[in-house]
Design a protein that fits this description.
The complex is a heterodimer of chains A (496) and B (387). Chain A is globular, with a radius of gyration of 23 Å. In chain A, helix 2 packs antiparallel against helix 4, helix 10 crosses helix 13 and helix 14 packs antiparallel against helix 15. In chain A, strands 12, 13, 14, 15, 16, 17, 18, 19 and 20 form a 9-stranded antiparallel sheet that branches. Chain A has a 5-stranded antiparallel sheet with strand order 5-6-10-8-9. A 4-stranded mixed sheet of chain A has the order 1-2-4-3, covered by helices on one side. Chain A starts with 7 loop residues before the first helix and ends in a 12-residue tail after the last strand. In chain A, strand 5 and strand 6 form a beta hairpin. The longest helix of chain A is centred in the last third of the chain and has 18 residues. Chain A is 34% helix and 20% strand. Chain A is built from 17 helices and 20 strands. Chain B has 387 residues and is α+β, with helices and mostly antiparallel strands. Chain B has 12 helices and 17 strands. The longest helix of chain B is centred in the first third of the chain and has 21 residues. Classes of the chains: A alpha+beta (496), B alpha+beta (387). The interface between A and B is large, with 95 and 87 residues.
Chain lengths: 496, 387
């Protein structure tokens, strides 16, 4: 994987850049430029790729972001926007001849409007902080990426983050009402607001998931929901992953939309049980977790339907969680799946494709075949309700050739996902990680159109260049989330 | 009748593509039409050639277990609804038809959503992917056929509500939803507007399956009427109706299944607020809690009748034809609302139909337009007067 080569003429401007940035901002502490201080910013959570920027700006207002963007435009310096650096696709990987604009200091909650069910925050507010700000009044913000304790709303919007409840509640794009952005020429523009429509084109949708290539998000108004009256979960044990997958389709076809459906395969279950001892049954092929939420009266009716369908689909055991605590216990194992992998293999490599649900058995068989072909074990955990797979390829980076094998394995999985009608990324984004696989999914004409949109917003190509679009348009494997010895880039965060 | 084959489909597609390429070469403009039921929206171009896509009317695929439907844009909305109801599914954004010929393409191009929108999401929330012919005459694809997707810019949603000005939709993938088993509507008559809005704001936030919230103010023959629709399994609907009714003080009654369905269809199809010959119809979208502030301002401009939908987030209103559109757009702007004026006929088709955008947003709109349609082939003045 290559990044655009740092340009000498930009590197030579480092002193001028730092001097002018310090002049521009009120406080010299807002400009980080010493190599020893820049270490923190050399990678996001895709830590296999690292690069120090020339400087990092800790912006405290949209005006400052605008000022920095104008300055960078004037002296031709590329910019990488940065929230919390928890992204898994290298979307915030710095450029050696660029600056990073961190939004982390812009962490004020500006307005809580319960009447309109809207909360307005600065871009650096964390996902979970939004829920924390309104939960005492019975509300929450629905998208729940596993890094929600640390990741920022600005980053969530840039990557269109998901979570475990997307089938029912949508991803970030379905939960944002308005944003303020700084454009590549420094202009500050507000899109949307508290109404359910915006005038003109749906630029809010275009900006969401644009991975920092079209503008820098400085503020957001998000939709909040009332906490459901009732939330219940059932765990079902199956003799094969295929029958668990079938149960998922049966439930959806029956007219029930669970808030979450998660499948784990044998290797994942065993690893989790070894790691946590959370009481999952051993020696079984698959577990399916189904969570229902909503009005109490409705959940009561639906849970019976779901139980019957699970039995019909061949579940050999059902465990029902009627209290919140029992429900958390059922979830605990699923949420420990990633760290548990660190115990059974020196390294693992996490993929993020989405497929049509019905193709699940076929995709799993293919992954199993690849596992045998590459001689690497793979554990499967996935958001089955929305078809988002997270195969975890186990390998040992100290064994010669295994890393390359794991990467080829991963690329083969993603290509197969696209082949069955799926996509390269469900929730981690393309970033640098899957950039070179884009031609597997899109034609030259598709990518040309997208790049024309990019140029329309950023004619100077200064916003996060080198991300999303392949430098060469051939379908070649990229990297992915590699974890060595269980050392996650953000060890304190859940990953699921 | 024989099923059309993929090669028939590709012939029809090629014909559309050729018409776009001809316009590109000749430097002319085209206006995309389907069922011709949405002509009252936006401005009308003079001199644009019609590009009729109603022939692109095929079902591409329907997989009930995936909750996904792929169709060509000319497929009739009514045919889609019928197909889906056979599998107990539906389009949860409850699109209006406004005429028998309504198509999926027109619905998506205009970004239209019905009463369930405040709960279930808008048309744009249900568009997962598209194929289109852009302004260079190229066939391109964006999005996908799955709910969770961060792979390239979300052009599918950006084209939803673009009124045919960014490209010709040739295939649309929609997310479906199970059709609720039953519905019922709680009706509170004799409800003043301030009380009604307060209740709607409160109810919209309740953790219940309330999927419609509308208010019809006092109007000679009727007293103010607040309506709340609940959907789901029968027992759950009954239980929730009881708990909702307990919180009301006025004369509450219940509309069961078919009566309930009928009244929301009337609202969706604009049957409750039909303009007379000397009236113009407007639609305003705004923060729900501001609804009555807006109504108050509109009353200063000869507001004749109105009703509230989307729990206050959408206001339908009638004015005498003589009220200049600019006046009403200014009223909308004062409350950060956005408004649509429905054209009465050719005589006012040139007026500013949509509330003007702020200069910054307008420039971004123009840039996106140029990126997708560099030569301005697709109805350049449909949304805003070309500058």
């Amino acid at each position: 994987m290559q990044l655009p080569a740092p340009r000498q003429e930009r590197l030579q401007r480092r002193e001028e850049l730092v001097r002018r940035l310090i002049e521009l901002l009120d406080d010299p502490d807002q400009v980080i430029h010493r190599p020893e201080d820049l270490v923190v910013y050399e990678c996001d959570a895709l830590s296999a790729y690292r690069q120090q920027p020339m400087a990092v700006i800790l912006a405290s207002s949209a005006e400052q972001v605008s000022g920095v963007v104008r300055l960078c435009g004037e002296i031709d310096i590329p910019i990488v926007p940065w929230g919390a650096g928890t992204g898994l696709s290298g979307g915030a990987l710095p450029l050696g001849d660029g600056v990073v604009i961190s939004l982390a200091r812009m962490s004020r909650i500006l307005d809580i409007d319960l009447e309109n069910r809207a909360v307005t925050v600065e871009a650096g507010v964390t996902n979970l902080a939004i829920t924390r700000a309104v939960e005492d009044r019975g509300f929450y913000y629905a998208p729940d990426p596993s890094s929600q304790l640390a990741c920022t709303i600005g980053g969530n919007i840039a990557e269109n983050s998901g979570g475990v409840h997307c089938l029912k509640y949508g991803t970030t794009t379905n939960n944002v009402l308005g944003i303020q952005i700084v454009l590549s020429d420094g202009e500050v523009v507000d899109l949307g607001g508290k109404s359910m429509d915006q005038g003109g084109y749906d630029l809010l949708a275009l900006m969401t998931g644009s991975e920092g290539l079209l503008g820098i998000i400085t503020r957001a108004t998000v939709r909040i929901l009332r906490k459901p009256q009732s939330a219940r979960a059932i765990m079902a044990v199956f003799n094969s992953v295929e029958s668990a997958g079938q149960a998922v389709s049966d439930i959806i076809a029956s007219g029930v939309v669970p808030s979450g459906m998660e499948i784990m395969d044998r290797l994942a279950i065993e690893a989790v049980e070894d790691f946590l001892g959370c009481g999952y049954p051993r020696d079984v092929e698959a577990l399916l977790l189904v969570e229902l939420d909503g009005a109490a009266a409705e959940v009561e009716v639906r849970i019976g339907t779901v139980e019957a369908l699970l039995r019909q689909a061949g579940a050999t055991e059902l465990r029902r969680a009627d209290t919140d605590q029992e429900r958390q216990t059922l979830w605990a194992g699923r949420k420990a799946a990633f760290p548990a992998m660190g115990r059974i293999a020196p390294d693992y490599y996490c993929m993020d494709g989405t497929i049509p649900r019905g193709r699940l058995p076929e995709v799993l068989r293919y992954i199993q075949g690849l596992s045998e072909r590459f001689g690497l074990r793979v554990a499967n955990v996935f958001h089955a309700g929305d078809g988002n797979l997270h195969p975890l390829i186990l390998y040992d980076s100290n064994a010669p050739g295994q890393l390359e094998k794991a990467e080829s394995f991963g690329a083969e999985i993603l290509k197969f996902c696209v082949g069955v009608g799926g996509v390269l990324s469900g929730e981690h984004g393309i970033g640098v990680e899957k950039r070179d696989l884009m031609p597997c999914m899109f034609t030259d004409a598709d990518l040309d159109t997208q790049e024309r949109v990019k140029s329309a917003f950023d004619p100077g190509q200064l916003l996060n260049p080198g991300k999303v679009f392949p430098l060469l348009r051939r379908c070649i494997p990229g990297g992915s989330m590699h974890v060595h010895a269980g050392e996650l880039p953000f060890p304190g965060l859940e990953r699921f | 009748m024989a099923e059309p084959t993929p090669s028939d489909r590709s012939t029809a597609l090629k014909a559309v593509q050729e018409q776009v390429l001809e316009a590109v070469d000749a430097g002319t403009t085209v206006e995309i039409t389907g069922g011709c039921t949405k002509g009252r929206l936006g401005r009308r171009e003079t001199g644009a050639k019609r590009l009729d896509v109603s022939g692109l009317d095929q079902l591409i695929s329907y997989e009930p277990g995936e909750l996904v439907l792929v169709v060509q844009p000319g497929m009739r909305l009514a045919a889609v609804e019928e197909l889906l109801s056979g599998e107990n599914q539906h389009l949860a954004f409850e699109p209006p038809q406004w005429g028998d010929g309504a198509t999926v393409g027109g619905t998506v191009a205009c970004g239209l959503s019905g009463p369930r929108r405040f709960k279930a999401g808008a048309a744009r929330d249900f568009v997962l992917g598209i194929e289109l012919i852009d302004g260079c005459g190229q066939r391109i694809r964006a999005g996908g056929r799955v709910v969770k997707n961060v792979t390239g810019y979300d052009l599918s949603r950006a084209l939803t509500g673009s009124f045919g000005t960014l490209g010709v939709l040739t295939e649309i993938c929609l997310k479906l939803w199970p059709r609720p088993e039953t519905q019922a509507t709680l009706v509170v008559d004799g409800c003043g507007r301030a009380d009604a809005l307060a209740l709607m704001l409160e109810w919209a936030a309740l953790p219940l399956e309330i999927t419609g919230l509308a208010y019809l103010p006092e109007d000679g023959s009727t007293s103010g009427r607040l309506m709340a629709r609940i959907e789901g399994p029968g027992a759950a609907v009954a239980e929730q109706m009881r708990s909702l009714a307990e919180g009301t003080t006025g004369a509450a009654s219940t509309l069961e299944e078919s009566e309930s369905a009928h009244v929301w269809k009337q609202l969706r199809e604009l049957e409750l607020l039909q303009p007379n010959a000397d009236e113009q119809l407007w639609r305003f979208s705004l923060a729900p809690a501001q609804a009555l502030l807006l109504v108050g301002q509109l009353e200063a401009h000869d507001l004749r009748r109105y009703c509230l939908d989307w729990g206050g987030g959408q206001v339908w209103a009638l004015f005498p034809a003589r009220v200049p559109p600019a006046t009403l757009h200014r009223a909308a702007l004062r409350l950060a609302a956005t408004a649509w004026r429905f054209a009465r006929g050719p005589e006012d088709a040139n007026d500013e139909a949509f509330t003007p955008l702020s200069p910054g947003v307008h420039r971004l709109n123009q840039r996106l337009k140029r990126a997708m349609d560099p030569k301005g082939v697709f109805s350049p003045g449909r949304m805003y007067r070309p500058s």
